[in-house]
Amino acid sequence: MLYSRLTASQKRRAFRAALNSGRLQRMPGAFSPLVAMAIARRGFEGVYISGGALAADLGLPDIGLTTLSEVAARSAATARMVDLPTLVDADTGFGEPLNAARTVQVMEEAGVSGCHFEDQENPKRCGHLDGTTLVPVPTAVRRIAAAVAARRDPDFIIGARTDAKAHGGIKAVVERAKAYADAGADLLFPEALADAEEFEAVRAAVDIPILANMTEFGKSTLLTVDQLRDLGVNVVIYPVTMLRVAMGAITRALESIDETGTQADLVDDMQHRHRLYELLGYSDYTTFDTDVFDTGGRQ
Ligand SMILES: C[C@](O)(C(=O)O)[C@H](CC(=O)O)C(=O)O
Ligand SMILES: [Mg+2]
């Protein structure tokens, strides 16, 4: 009832241990706290907060327009509702290395378990699009080092994403990955790798845990959890999947109401009122306070 029973530091400790466990952590993207609750209910290991999905939810393209405050507020609202660890997309750190440092401290206060910074120049864009630009290695290293130095909870995970695949191939990815690991990154996010062979090459060259971004309509082959486990990947994210699925359903529903004049045809595909209340733990609230109106499951 109400919020997660675990403290932020308990969730962070669990996340760090999970990253070192060798077990694949599946982290679907939650574009709202309710989606995060559904992810937890289904038994996934963690929740990802996608910058692209968050921007889209605000009606914006993913080009670095969202602010630290907006991302932190959504992250806090999401993290507090689940016992699972939450990993947040911190884009380029919202500015200079000093901004990356502040981002870490704000994210610690938001109660999330970690965040990642990418080595793109601003305005950044989705790593699966053409035309990204990278900052030089020393600038990216300063970004990561500043984030690491600012961290107060040693279990807070700092991820380093490199978009170097499009700028020098796997060789450049590995070179940058090593520099970021040396700067203290806990987790490597090699963006937009093409296939299993490329993950294999990065895994062989880098010691720190690796994240695989299984985003749709991008440059990466969609690998299964079994394939990713075999490759020694530690975290898999499905960053925008839930948003895309929901928007697909919403678009079809709007067409159906527009065409038929009623939502009657849609009812069977809806999450039932009972299931929603069950997910929200409605009955716990009524047990706690009998003055809270209980629908008794009736509509
Ligand atoms: C992971 C990502 O950074 C995100 O914001 O979720 C995006 C995902 C996407 O746009 O499909 C990315 O740059 O890969
Ligand atoms: Mg992003």
Automatic annotation (TrEMBL):
<comment type="similarity">
    <text>Belongs to the isocitrate lyase/PEP mutase superfamily. Methylisocitrate lyase family.</text>
</comment>
<dbReference type="InterPro" id="IPR012695">
    <property type="entry name" value="PrpB"/>
</dbReference>
<protein>
    <recommendedName>
        <fullName>Methylisocitrate lyase</fullName>
        <ecNumber>4.1.3.30</ecNumber>
    </recommendedName>
</protein>
<dbReference type="InterPro" id="IPR040442">
    <property type="entry name" value="Pyrv_kinase-like_dom_sf"/>
</dbReference>
<comment type="function">
    <text>Catalyzes the thermodynamically favored C-C bond cleavage of (2R,3S)-2-methylisocitrate to yield pyruvate and succinate.</text>
</comment>
<dbReference type="Pfam" id="PF13714">
    <property type="entry name" value="PEP_mutase"/>
</dbReference>
<dbReference type="InterPro" id="IPR018523">
    <property type="entry name" value="Isocitrate_lyase_ph_CS"/>
</dbReference>
<keyword id="KW-0460">Magnesium</keyword>
<dbReference type="GO" id="GO:0046421">
    <property type="term" value="F:methylisocitrate lyase activity"/>
</dbReference>
<dbReference type="GO" id="GO:0046872">
    <property type="term" value="F:metal ion binding"/>
</dbReference>
<dbReference type="InterPro" id="IPR015813">
    <property type="entry name" value="Pyrv/PenolPyrv_kinase-like_dom"/>
</dbReference>
<keyword id="KW-0456">Lyase</keyword>
<keyword id="KW-0479">Metal-binding</keyword>
<dbReference type="GO" id="GO:0019629">
    <property type="term" value="P:propionate catabolic process, 2-methylcitrate cycle"/>
</dbReference>
<comment type="pathway">
    <text>Organic acid metabolism; propanoate degradation.</text>
</comment>
<dbReference type="InterPro" id="IPR039556">
    <property type="entry name" value="ICL/PEPM"/>
</dbReference>
